[in-house]
Amino acid sequence: MIESLIQSNNAELTQSTKKGSPVVLSTRVRLARNLVGVPFPERASSSQRSDIMTKCADRIADLPQMKNGAFFDVAELSDLEKQVLVERHLISRELCESDSGSGVFINKDQTCSVMINEEDHLRIQFLKTGFSLRSVWKQIDRFDSGLESDLDVAFSHEFGYLTACPTNLGTALRASVMMHLPGLVISDHMDKVIRAVNQLGITVRGLFGEGSDATGHVFQISNQQTLGESEEAIMSRLGNVFKTIIDHEINARFKYLEENRARMLDQVGRAFGVLQNAHVLNSNEAMNLLSLMRLAVDFEMLPEANRSDIDRLFIECQPGHIQHAAGEGIEPEARDLGRADKLRREFNQFPALDFDKVNELT
Amino acid sequence: MADNLKCSHCSNPATVHLTQIVNNKIIKVDLCESCAQAKGVTDPEGFSLADLLSKTNLSPGGSGEPQITCPDCGLTTVDFRRTGRLGCATCYQHFVPLVRPVLEDMHAGTAHKGKVPKVALTRQNAVAELQSLENALQRAIAEEAYEDAAKFRDQIHAIRSAAETNPEEAVRT
Q1: B70 and chain A: CB distance < 8 Å anywhere?
Q2: Is this structure's pTM higher than 0.90?
């Protein structure tokens, strides 16, 4: 069912041709919205859920941003297909486990997805590669206003947009960036950063959200609070914190390079060698090797043009994608072979590492 | 003195005594060693009494807490305490006494300061207004108050025709 999505040659996260950012892989904003006069998904009957889905799907299909988009009924997706969509950050794990009457709309370039009957009736998400909170907010704001002109959304002047969980009230906005932070991890500063931002009402999680590991030194950082501040205020506060983290990360990288030059170049060189020659690679090891390759681009050891390949491989080396490429659900051992084959093929197309470039940098 | 206290969860002697301020009320809980372990009361700084209380339904106010039932979806105080979630938009009108204290700890403020869905709200108001005008019209006809009826009919007509000519602006009647 999701074949066209995976084969697509203009998907934002996997095929972006824009210039990437050294620290931020992608920016996402999501809004939760509910309809009036019908219980939230968890308390809605199955016939109410399917009514909500039909009503919302009709409206969403009419929006210009969804032109040539695709709708998937969760009940009709296989477990593997759901896993692939989770790995592409297009649906949540919670949606995968939902009862009948849940679905997702995904637009053509996979920058927008709207989950229907997840925790709330609607969970709208826009994403972009790189760091661009403002422009993603503008897009989602326009989309949301378009929806609202046809759907009666639940809103109170006191609590703002009404959501199933009070943690999402108010703006019901969650803005997050996916950050690659090898410098802070290697220099043992990550715990300190997490504690500091937690105190500012900001959450740090792993690559796949709640409870997931930060493999590949990739972290998802987002606001926790949604009520009592405007969208602009939330994003400007977040933006400042993000910029501070980016500065710390860059400093940590250069400090590590200055103090451990040989060790650093050795790690990058070995990672490249493993990726070009390994025959068995588990997901965790692959993520950590890819992390070093992203760092190699940042330090100009690899051309900028290869950055989007590496970002694509972060997603395509996930277990669901490897299995989907194999055309069937396969055991972890077989996946590790498939993953190594894929990485070998890809990295043998890469130019050799240019170690001289690093020496010019410092 | 404290040694005479019994654990709030079982009847073993309590050895862990917690005091925290939750929603401006001082809450004390006494636990025995094993219950404290089971509840994860190991790190006093990272531990929130409010979490423990909400999980064990011993929330501030205890049995004196208002027992609310949402007239629309049937959600009860017990349901809300168990899941931490509301059942429908109407719940927010009825569960205010329970929701508001939770928000103070959760968010930067307790009042919305962001986007307002103007189009949807004015449309909803227009629909409500039309409904009330229709009711008024029927009442006026039944009471043979034809002058009033004509007035209501004209108002309904004005809202409807505005909606046809300009759907977005229509609602601003």
Answers
A1: no
A2: no
